[in-house]
Amino acid sequence: MAYDSNKGISALASVIQGKAKQAADGIPMSLDFGVINGDFSLKTNTFGKPIPRSDYSVCRLVTGYTLATSDSSWTGHLQNDKHNHGSPSGVPAHSHDVPMPGLKAGDRVLVAWVQNEAVVIDVVVRA
User: Fold this and answer.
1) Do the domain assignments include residue 49?
2) Non-local CB neighbours of 25 within 8 Å, separated by 6+ positions
3) What is the per-residue DSSP string for 48-107?
4) What Cα–Cα distance (Å) separates residue 85 from each residue in 57, 78, 90, 91, 97?
5) What's the pLDDT band for 78 if we cut at 50, 70, 90?
6) Would you place residue 93 in the very low, low, confident or very high pLDDT band (cuts 50, 70, 90)?
7) 57 near 119, Cβ under 8 Å?
8) What are phi and psi of 43, to 5 degrees?
9) What predicted TM-score, i.e. pTM, was given to this entire model?
10) Which structural domain, as residue segments, surrounds residue 67?
11) What is the pLDDT of residues 29-58, one digit of tens each?
């Protein structure tokens, strides 16, 4: 017998579903540990099944993001030095890109649970 035709059961199911959503929305963010599997799914300590790569989020700094750095201080020769080559004002004396390491299989990660979404915050290493 299908329950869809029973208005009482349908109403009860609707109330239960609404209460479950309210309870889930009221759950504060919690932290968890996890591991990145070989297929880049995420296995956390509190969720029993691997979460596919497409179903969790990652903070930008663990995505292989590249940071551009520069040193705007000039450390050249003194003005009265005959070997002074000068530095145009505002031109960095030194700059380069620093690639941040991305996630890799086997990484132990810190995960924030935001309602029902897992967000990888960073890679966790031993002290």
Assistant:
1) yes
2) 115
3) SSPBPGGGSEE-GGGBT-EEEEEE-------TT-TT-----TT--SEEEEEEPPB--TT-
4) 49, 9, 15, 13, 25
5) very low
6) low
7) yes
8) -115, 115
9) 0.57
10) 28-74+89-123
11) 699 999 999 999 999 999 889 999 999 999
Tokens describing residue 93: 């004396």
What gap in Å lies between CA 106 and CA 66, rounded to an integer? 22
Does 107 reside within a domain?
Answer: yes
Residue type, 1: M
Contacts of 33 (CB under 8 A, 6+ apart): 44, 45, 108, 109, 110, 111, 124
Find where tokens 């810190």 sit: 110
pLDDT at 1 over 60: no
Using DSSP, state whether 22 is helix, strand or coil. Answer: helix
Domain membership flag for residue 62? yes
The pair of structure tokens assigned to 102 is: 């991305």
